[in-house]
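Weekly modeling sync, notes
Attendees: S.R. (lead), two postdocs, one rotation student

Agenda item 3: backlog of single-chain predictions. S.R. asked that every request posted to the team notebook include the full sequence so nobody has to chase files. The rotation student volunteered to paste the first one in as an example of the format we agreed on. Action items at the bottom.

Example entry:
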Amino acid sequence: MAETMFTVSSSPHIRDNSSVQSIMRDVIIALLPATIAGIYFFKLKAVLVILAAVISCVLSEMVWCKLTKQQDTSKDLSAVVTGLLLAFNVPPSLPIWMVVIGSIFTVIIVKCLFGGIGQNIVNPALAGRAFLLASYPVAMTTWTNPVDGATGATPLAILKGVEAGGGQLPSLAQAFIGQVGGCIGETSALALLIGFAYLLYRRVITWHIPVFYLGTIAVLGTIFGRGNLGASAGIYEIMVGGVMLGGIFMATDYTTSPMTKKGQIIYAVLAGFLAMIIRRFGGYPEGCSYSILIMNLFVPLIDKYVKPRVFGTGEVK
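Predicted structure, as returned to the notebook:
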């Protein structure tokens, strides 16, 4: 009788067929509704910005791998996702050369210099947005109204009171569909929710971070009650700006979010709190990007004190 051969290896022993490429492919599919919505509302400008960001991010990673004589990781699709998310976080009117500079910074400085995928300490796309906002503040705060193509204020700027003459707030229905000024990928809450449902279905992410992040903003938005919106103030806060895009697609980044469910809830609640504090009391109308970036830096601390259970011991180590 032939002897049975066993392979002995160290833990963990639970494996599945997921890979970086398959996960990134699912994220790209989840981003398609928002991509289509952005192109529908902002037309050719959105197409050019998206293509410029994606191509620049992929080429930046390819060139980095070539220069450093590392394995080419551009084929794992993570650079494509980074490019899409960066494009989603800028206005459609942003000059293409600025998009290219932001893409190079995002991939080379924020991702590759820290060791590549899985090693970055903050979300690359949000760091790229923050870099562009600091470098080119006028271009990054020039908004196009998708209804008539004119330059105008975003709903958050109107709520903040920085729009001369006050301005007219779009309706909740317009904000839900995407007929508001803003960044390419953040305007249509409907498209982002479709992507969220797909990620949950594919089990790429769990509901904890998005629900607690958006829920915290909704509760605080109701308490603050900006814009004389009454009971709908909290819902309006999560429909406009980048919180839905950030909460679903960037706060949930594996590398820069906590490992445990409890840690993720703490992270999401604190990030939501920071976002609304910045919106309400800060000098900038939007607080999503900075709230997530700040909490990215606290993830190691959260993981240190909120630890997963060690299998087989009944103890938390």
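Discussion: group reviewed the output briefly. The chain has 13 helices and two strands.
Action items: rotation student to repeat for the remaining queue; S.R. to check formatting next week.
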